[in-house]
């Protein structure tokens, strides 16, 4: 899925969905996942704004922010995005990047990712 | 139904307060619901089935509390133009972050097939374009009439213009002849005056000249 923060990764693949106790088959918006970085932006050793730059093949954590599969809101409405997207995290549930580019689902707020929601340029 | 599952609470008019589980549906009671809706009946649950409470959306906060909101806003379908009431339909966010709302899977499917709503006969876009079902008052353009005003000019005010216009032919004629005769009389008077002043010796050769001069003078005088 796409990575929409500026951590350096472009494309990540989900490897495991972290949900308490259960080995769930799928993850939804707001779920933490373990992922492998499949594609990343070329790391500039000389100029690096943030110290942490993700490389290809890294195994990281991420939180899903957009899904193609519909997500049901409490008011009964369904939300669906055109793609799957995630934001990279570190082991302490903190964001790796500093900025987010793109739309983010508002369900994140309900699952406790207020920081991501506040950084996002647009929340639906 | 969804509303009953959530345990709608209401106050019975005789002071009792309870949820649908607590009240038995046997007796005849009057009740007032949370939002002021009043009713009475034998089987309360049956009553409530017909009056659905407004749907609520709950926002869950990280500290464990939740606030419930009414999702009032009725959206419109981006394809067909129908109204989407809360809890109905789907919301689709495209890659360019543009939001599309669909009231039914029908409109969603057609949208994804990239059909043009202007060509689909049952959509509002089509109907507006082909002016279906719009009454005359809306459709017809009001014809613009420029109202002409009678205005007076400098030198001839409204009254003078009206006078001139309303002059009958007779009146005009009389005025004209009067003016003519008046002019003639004036001319004659002038000629007579000029002849008197000029000496008689000059008469023959100068006569035509004088008369011409007089005429010119007369004309100028008139």
UniProtKB/TrEMBL annotation, chain A:
One Pfam family it belongs to: Ribosomal_L14
UniProt keyword terms in alphabetical order: Ribonucleoprotein, Ribosomal protein
Cellular-component GO terms for this entry: mitochondrial large ribosomal subunit
CDD domains membership: Ribosomal_uL14 (cd00337)
GO annotation (BP), single: translation
Matching SUPFAM superfamilies: Ribosomal protein L14
InterPro entries: Ribosomal_uL14, Ribosomal_uL14_bac-type, Ribosomal_uL14_CS, Ribosomal_uL14_sf
UniProt GO molecular function: large ribosomal subunit rRNA binding; structural constituent of ribosome
Annotated NCBIfam families: rplN_bact
Family membership: Belongs to the universal ribosomal protein uL14 family.
Summary of the function given for this chain in its UniProt record: Component of the mitochondrial ribosome (mitoribosome), a dedicated translation machinery responsible for the synthesis of mitochondrial genome-encoded proteins, including at least some of the essential transmembrane subunits of the mitochondrial respiratory chain. The mitoribosomes are attached to the mitochondrial inner membrane and translation products are cotranslationally integrated into the membrane.
Protein name: Large ribosomal subunit protein uL14m
Taxonomic lineage: Eukaryota, Fungi, Dikarya, Basidiomycota, Agaricomycotina
From TrEMBL, chain B:
Large ribosomal subunit protein eL24-related N-terminal domain segment(s): 73-137
Database matches in InterPro entries: L24e/L24_sf, Ribosomal_eL24, Ribosomal_eL24-rel_N
MF GO annotations: mRNA binding; structural constituent of ribosome
Compositional bias of kind Basic and acidic residues: 181-198
Region (Disordered): 181-222
Compositionally biased region (Low complexity): 200-209
Residue ranges that the Swiss-Prot or TrEMBL entry lists as coiled coil: none
Secretion signal span: none
Listed name of the protein: Ribosomal protein L24e-domain-containing protein
